[in-house]
Design goal:
globular, Rossmann fold, alpha/beta, 2 domains, 298 residues
Length: 298
């Protein structure tokens, strides 16, 4: 089983991942003897890499791999495919992050072992979507019938794509896509959605209607033109005043890292759930690794 796109998972498999995540939080110990996972992060990462590494070690799964291309043979001219073939020989599963769209799919075509997409360019980040929705379920008690606001860089943010595509598997209320015109969600993503959306520029217009506010930073690393980045930098900022105008039980999520799109004062509010969200990444990724590496946990 590969995990390249969130669209590959049906509701039954998502529910299975969430149930197993609860088991891990309750102290369940999996049985994955002598397994090795390769973390092939061709693009820099802190949270996702560390989350997968922590998840693997808590499962007693050994970890090999790298962060960034310095010090690996691609810097000497080795092709991406050959690097994946080598890791395929060394490990039982490969977690891939890369700056180019389609890299994870290519890795899955090359490798015989399972491949997990940890982010490929501006395409997708499926394990983050699983973490996001597990957080919503835990913090709100449900996913269906909630109003969602997704704010920030909807054009280049890969977490947005996986988030929206995963919403297809549920029954949300209203979904507000909040961004500058230059950063609207891409048509090829919008055309695949089966729920009610409204694209708006203003953050505060519907803020008191939103149950889940998903905040995305401006993806500076995706811009080839620095001047274009400067035009949209700082387009939205979630302040304590904005948080106070939200529903009392509304939650604010962010896949992290943040830059300046959420004021530090918001961290002290009951709405802020992004650090808890990061913590949930451990049991969710433990579940993903367990299912892919083949533990029979029933």
């Amino acid at each position: 089983m590969d995990l390249i796109s969130i669209e590959e998972l049906d509701r039954a498999k998502i529910d299975e991942i969430f149930v197993l995540s609860n088991k891990f939080r309750e102290g369940y110990k999996s049985d994955l003897p002598n397994r090795i996972v390769a973390l092939a992060f061709f693009e820099p990462s802190t949270r996702t890499y560390s989350s997968f590494e922590s998840a693997a070690k808590r499962l007693d799964v050994k970890v090999i791999g790298f962060r960034g291309e310095q010090g690996i043979s691609t810097s000497k001219g080795e092709t991406f495919s050959d690097t994946i073939r080598m890791l395929d020989a060394y490990a039982d599963a490969i977690v891939v992050r890369h700056k180019y769209e389609g890299a994870a799919k290519l890795a899955a075509e090359v490798a015989k072992k399972p491949v997990i997409n940890a982010g490929d360019g501006r395409n997708e980040h499926p394990t983050q979507a699983l973490v996001d929705f597990y957080t919503i379920l835990e913090e709100k008690g449900k996913i269906n019938d909630l109003n969602y606001g997704i704010v920030g860089d909807l054009k280049y943010g890969r977490t947005v794509n996986s988030f929206l595509l995963m919403l297809n598997k549920f029954s949300p209320g209203k979904v507000y896509l909040i961004s500058p015109p230059e950063l609207r969600a891409r048509k090829e993503i919008l055309d695949r959605l089966n729920f009610n959306i409204e694209e708006i520029d203003e953050l505060e217009v519907n803020i008191n209607r939103i149950d889940v506010l998903y905040v995305i930073r401006i993806q500076k690393e995706r811009y080839l033109d620095a001047a274009e980045y400067q035009k949209v930098k700082g387009s939205y900022r979630i302040t304590k005043r904005i948080a106070e105008n939200m529903k009392k039980d509304a939650i604010i999520l962010h896949p992290l890292p943040r830059v300046d799109e959420i004021d530090r004062e918001v961290d002290k509010t009951e709405n802020a759930k992004y650090f808890i969200q990061a913590q949930y990444g451990i049991p969710v990724r433990m579940s993903i690794l367990t299912l892919i590496l083949g533990d029979s946990y029933e």
